[in-house]
Amino acid sequence: MDYNLHSSPMRELVRSTQGKAGNREIACAKAQEPLHFEPGERYLYSFCHDVLAAVIEVVVNQSFGDYLQQLVFLPLGMADTYFCVPEEKKHRIAAQFMYQEREGLVPLERNNRLQITPNHESGGAGLFSTVNDYAAFAVTMANGGVSPNGYRLLKKETVDLLRTEQLSSFAKDTTFSCSAGPGYGYGLGVRTLIDRSGGQRSSLGEFGWCGAAGSYILMDPAQKISIVFAMHVNNWPKMVGSYYTPIRDMVYDILEINL
């Protein structure tokens, strides 16, 4: 499985459904494509989270968006997080850009380029949100799955499993880095710090992710620290060295945490 959103099965699905296919139909179309290798042989950044969203829909018998609204967004007070932004809030969508070496910053349309159809509630790249909403999620995960208001989103054991290195025995795809710098491995959909020999200030097991346009989230359950940083520039070549690592280290330095 890869991240090709324009394969023949995908194009045919969009045509035959007049652009109305949802998660389950999209996952079935993806299943028509041949695997790149046998499951368990190696790691490849892929469409897997979108397939998992379709699996969730089958298991809970409701849309992925409704399930997240019920399980995550409402209990955590994430009032500005959507797959489809309401018309009255669309003016708040931040400008997006693509960095190109010759032209510099090129404006992009204010939409989700990875959404295949309007009914595609992507498990891997589908949500519009705000820094405050994202921070509410980050605080909950850094607190072992419990929100400040006492709502338990996940068990502590589940959070620990999420941030446990999964790829030590796999050959990793060298065309994509999920590490956000040295010392990081890959857990269940997140980077996770597995080696502090490079002088990292955060704890072993600190975990998070980096968005395609530069968003950055860090969650450190050992210290109950979370960091959220947002930008909207795709293809920016200096995100790790210029932003992620300095921001992470600056926060820990300010807090004078000696790990």
Question: Could you describe the 3D structure shown?
Answer:
The chain has 259 residues and is α+β, with helices and mostly antiparallel strands. The protein folds into 2 domains: 1-129, Beta-lactamase (3-Layer(aba) Sandwich), CATH 3.40.710.10; 130-259, DD-peptidase/beta-lactamase superfamily (Beta-lactamase, 3-Layer(aba) Sandwich), CATH 3.40.710.10. 30% of the residues lie in helices and 14% in strands. The protein has 7 helices and 10 strands. The protein has helices spanning 8-16, 23-30, 48-60, 64-76, 131-142, 156-162, 239-254, and strands at residues 42-43, 96-100, 104-108, 171-172, 184-186, 191-193, 207-210, 216-220, 225-229, 233-234. The protein has a 5-stranded antiparallel sheet, sandwiched between helices. Strands 3-2-10 form a 3-stranded mixed sheet, with no helix packed on it. A two-stranded parallel sheet has the order 1-4. Helix 2 (23-30) crosses helix 3. The radius of gyration is 19 Å and the shape is globular.
Task: Please describe the biggest sheet, giving its number of strands, its sense, and whether it closes into a barrel.
Answer: 5 strands, antiparallel
- Strand line-up in the sheet with most strands: 5-6-7-8-9
Taking the alpha carbons of the first and last residues, their distance comes to 40 Å
Number of strands: 10
The geometry reads as globular
CATH architecture of the largest domain: 3-Layer(aba) Sandwich
The helix fraction, in percent, is: 25-40%
Structural class: alpha+beta
